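Reviewer has doubts. Consider these tokens.
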Amino acid sequence: MNIDAIREQAFAMPLTNPAFPRGPYRFTNREFFIITYRTDPAKLREVVPEPLQPASDLVNFEFIRMPDSTGFGDYTESGQVIPVLLGGVAGNYTHAMYLNDHPPIAGGRELWGFPKKLACPRLQVHTDTLVGELDYGPVRVATATMGYKHQVLDASAQQRSMINTPNFLLKIIPHVDGSARICELVRFYLKDVTVHGVWSGPAALALFPHALAPVAELPVLEVVEARHIIADLTLGLGEVEFDYLN
């Protein structure tokens, strides 16, 4: 394989058999369970990277079922997303993500900079309760519950919010000597969003300490609201918002 062929074919690793295909990445019937809670504002300031600033003392703990996703298959993920401000504009910063499928772990980290780690999240309905669970190995890390579809919310407002809200990631790719080759704040948007339904209900969230999945370091002080969303969407590719090395 000559140098020109390598340049033409290079997209992701491994070169001759990448772990994920080229996009676009379309998700059908993507199901979200999002619990918004208050936490210690000092703890938030410790984990939100400048130039982003925490918008408040709120954190979103998310469980997401993806039964039909282009190139990535059928999987579930969970994690923490923090409402932030950049130049006075409201957005979301993804702080931690845990999922059970290798292609979206590789693709999420290499393309966008999603902070993805391998774990075992689940989202399912038990009788009258929507239940989210996150285990890291054999250890329980998070348990969330919500009354199933107690209150219908405005789907069009949810759709506008998902389309118009910028999302931020801290992408870090190491050099061969172990230093940072890439260290960037990445901005991306959700595109072609269709919200099929959104509901709320009474909710509870419990986080448990773990050395390698430290979601409990942003402790739950008060549950503010919960949302259950079903939507189709395309995950847009990113843009570099800020280069920490330049």
Observations:
- The chain has a mean pLDDT of 97.
- Residues 2 and 8 are 10 Å apart (CA to CA).
- Helices lie at 3-9, 41-47, 102-112, 155-164.
